[in-house]
Amino acid sequence: MRAIIQRVKEASVTVNGSIVSQIGRGLLVLIGVSAKDEKQDAAYIVRKILNLRLFPNADGSRRWDKSVKDLGFEVLCVSQFTLYTELKGNKLDFHRAMDPEFSQKFYLDVIQQIRENYVSERVKDGIFGAMMDVQLINDGPVTIVLDSCTRGSDQISSGDTKLIHSSERDSKPAQM
């Protein structure tokens, strides 16, 4: 699973000319689901979204001191299967992305996990599979790229499922 996390002053998602979600200060998170993602990939990404210290403290003396959760800011999640694009010459190949038949449920389960681990009303999302206009005002800018496949064993908390090496994973998508 991949997540592009951007610290924002505000962000919104518009579909067919209507705003479907908007937030004030917080994080805009673009989420891509791989064909090989499993529950522990989602748990890692959810934990990082909520706990990364991307904000300064109140007096500004420490730049990377507080998380979105610490400050009660908002989170706007947007599904983006193109995060698993590979280029073949100038042609796009999406075979590494999870099939839409499974990825919508997986993505929605991730959003639900974020809501369950935070304040549900502060977690917004776009419309899965829709063509969306995403507007944001970057704060910084601060942009973090996360990939659950590259996490180290030192980043696993006691509540996580054990890591499964990619060679041990089944080729079909896991269900959450």
From TrEMBL:
Keywords: Cytoplasm, Hydrolase, RNA-binding, tRNA-binding. It is an enzyme of class 3 (hydrolase). Its EC number is 3.1.1.96. Residues 162-176 have a biased composition (Basic and acidic residues). One of its GO terms (cellular component) is cytoplasm. Residues 154-176 are annotated as: Disordered. CDD domains: Dtyr_deacylase. Gene3D superfamilies: D-tyrosyl-tRNA(Tyr) deacylase (3.50.80.10). It catalyses: a D-aminoacyl-tRNA + H2O = a tRNA + a D-alpha-amino acid + H(+); glycyl-tRNA(Ala) + H2O = tRNA(Ala) + glycine + H(+). Belongs to the DTD family. NCBIfam families: D-aminoacyl-tRNA deacylase (TIGR00256). This is D-aminoacyl-tRNA deacylase. It comes from Fasciola hepatica (Liver fluke).
